[in-house]
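Example with several molecule types.
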Amino acid sequence: MGKAMELSGLWGMNRRVLKIRYPWATLLLIFLILFTMAPLLTLILGSFSNSTEIGEFKDFGLQNYARAYLRQSTLVILGNTLGLTVGSVLLGVTLAVAMAWLVERTNIPCKGIMYAAIPLTLAIPGVLHAISWIFLFSPRMGYVNRWLMNAFDLSAAPFNTYTLPGMIVLEALRVVPTSFLLMVPLFRNMDTSLEEAAAVSGAGPFSRLRRITLPVVSSGIIAVLIYETITVLETFEIPGILGLPARIYVFSTKIYAVTQGLETPDYGQANALAMAYILMAAVGVILYARATRRAERFAVITGRGYRPKLLDLGWWRYAAVGVAGLYLTLTLVLPLLVLFWTSLLPYPALPTEKSLALVSLDNYRTIAIYGATWKVLKNTALMVAATAVGTIVLSFLISWILVRTRFWGRRLLDMLAFLPRSIPGIVKALALIWIFLVLRPYFPIYGTVWLISLGFIMSFIAYGTRAVTASLLQIHHELEEAAYISGATQLVTFRRIHFPLLVPTFVGLGIWSMFLSVRLTGLPLMLYEGAENQVLSVFIWMMWDDGQMGAVSGLGVLTILFLFLVAVVMRRMGFREVGGHR
Amino acid sequence: MVKVRGLVKKYEVDHGDVHAVRGVDFEVPKGKFFTLLGPSGCGKTTTLRAVAGLEMIDGGEIEIDGQIVTSVPRGVFVAPHRRDIGMVFQSYAIWPHMNVFENVEFPLTQLKAKPPKSVIREKVLRALSLVHMDGLEDRPAPQLSGGQQQRLAFARAIVREPKVLLLDEPLSNLDAQLRAEMRFELKSLVKRLGITTLYVTHDQLEALTMSDQVAVMHAGTIVQISSPRDLYRKPRDRFVAAFIGTSNFFEGKVLTIGNSNQPSSVDIGIGTLHCFLPEETHRGAKVVLAMRAEHFEISLDKPAGSENTLRGKVSNLLFLGESLDCHIEVDGKLIHVKAPADIAIEDGDEVFIRVPPERCIAVDIGES
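Resulting structure tokens for the full complex:
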């Protein structure tokens, strides 16, 4: 009798706890719906509105679409976008798969350097990477071009980086580090007995690679391909710096160019263009979600303790390490050197006796005394901090509901956290402009750094939720239950048990979002409204537009060094950046 | 068919080398089933993998069918894919991106002289039918149960009719009932095919039931090679006696020396036991006697012949269904005894236990 009472009491309590949990989960769900769907809806509405005022909806019709799509140049843009995406993804992922296989499964030398240096290339922001390539390969002032022309007496520059192939090569190099980080665990976790079974079945090394190793990791490779496709599809920095001057547009730069229209920015047309763009990205995201589900099925098959026997490449390993060395030279060493060299000069020049005499720290002095610099740094710090905190808090709340409650809307919540990832950064910025111009009287954050943070948070919670969910799942139920049994309330349990165990994830997530929000240029550039919300990446873009090459280089060197430091800290904490965009 | 001589394998660890295998010699005659038995970490799997060529060795030679495949002194190493072997892995290593048919077909497609399609198909189907997997050819590999994966791995290993079949704990991932079934099936299959088989296991039951010969390994060396019966009846040392079945050990001192008809007597502290000792043993030597739990006779009344009889108290009783597992306390020493299930004894009963002299085995003979 007493037992029955207790039991029903327990049940009652349980039900009460669930009831208490529902309201704030529902609140969060409503918030997320507004947070993610409202910008999208404004964007769609705006694409049909023919008002010349942004933020005003009237005279609905299809004129924007006509202006955007009924012209041949749109086909060219589509072709450029696909060319850039397909070309750089295929090239970059192939390189990454080869290097991941080399370091994990063969006896290639210098593995330590490759493990450390390849992820480090992530620290170079796209804009600075593109700028360094202009210093190296532009037809007029490119150091490499001029050196080759002098050395071999050429009449024309051999390389031109202001072309689609030029962009494809650079973008491909930038695809490598994330793909490499995604591929390494695939090769590492693959059950080695699968290859051994092929060996005792009579298959030689090449046959094993072709028939067993590559097919087994193929679903993983496909997932990486789709993932990188989404990333390159929304990339802005490379086509922005290299493509805009040559009027080679892709979707992201075209939308930016349209909103910067000489007389009146044509936001209606930008919206209409964005629709096709969103569609492409959404297809990619859906495919990615499917591919990773399949990849998990394969990933379950992992081996036991034997260390894989490394393949002896013989003399080929020196060729292999040469390719890796060339990659690191082009991606890491040359860009850094060229930025540093240019930062010491009043104008870009090849290192000669004459130019050596010009070396000074003047550019750094200019940066330091230039009034805007400090305002920009303050803005950047505020924006980065808000982004990090927002990402952590929102990711945690969503993950908590997903993992630890039986809230009815969990699937929806999960989807909403992932949805914004399918909206390219430029489009997200466009949507935010629309909605916060409309909401300006109530939420006056248009034109502040907070709007930039909001945009980044929208992008980052997709990865943040996945990271926190993974950590939460690792905290066994019984750890929490043991705390309850010891008499701790839910709040105390969270503070004393969950929080300390989650701190490494939170810190890692914070550093990760800081890293990205410093590097990405597209979204803050779209939202740029003046000194009030100018952040570092926009500042660099503007200075480059002004032609201040020396100062840009100096600022670039400082930024990259700072990001290197962050990257090293991040790796020290064992937090790998794999979920990111660039 | 398989000869292993002086096999040595070292692993580098942070502080120096660890010997996984320290000088192993054995020979598997053609068509025989040879088992390497031992606890985990004894070097049995390393030895098997060395025979397969999956492990580089630091000393010794391996010969398969008259051909030296690995030799450290001669600097010979034949890659695993050039050895005529089949192997079943502990994890089965079924390729997840192929279906059942493709998995079995693969070894045939790697032959130097690739047989025609029809021959390949016939051989694959025959191998699958041998393991009772007819009709499952098109099933994707990830959709197989544990038992089916095991059968598939076996079919794949034998489809080329290799000279030597290597089996690395193939039954350890199956549940108990399936394991018992597969033991019989595997044995009869291997016998029928007549393939020379090298089998690795830590399960004494598998080793005893399936093998022609068993090599017991301990800490990187082989401590005894013999037939399963001899392994059970005449363990050479204390490790083997303890590893196979449940044994009781008594340290004692030789009192009198007998001959082949007349047992010697040994003082074990709680009494005197008669047993047959090796000829070279002399009086006063210290010996360790091993007696298996199931070789004791247990009775409530004093048995007629009082030889080798000890008196004690039942202190712990476990009913196992087919037998009774009990501890008998004799002068403060616990003796593990396995009794018939129908004997009527209770905890605390006074009982007599007796062990025949021929069941007392001296496993460790020291100097006086």
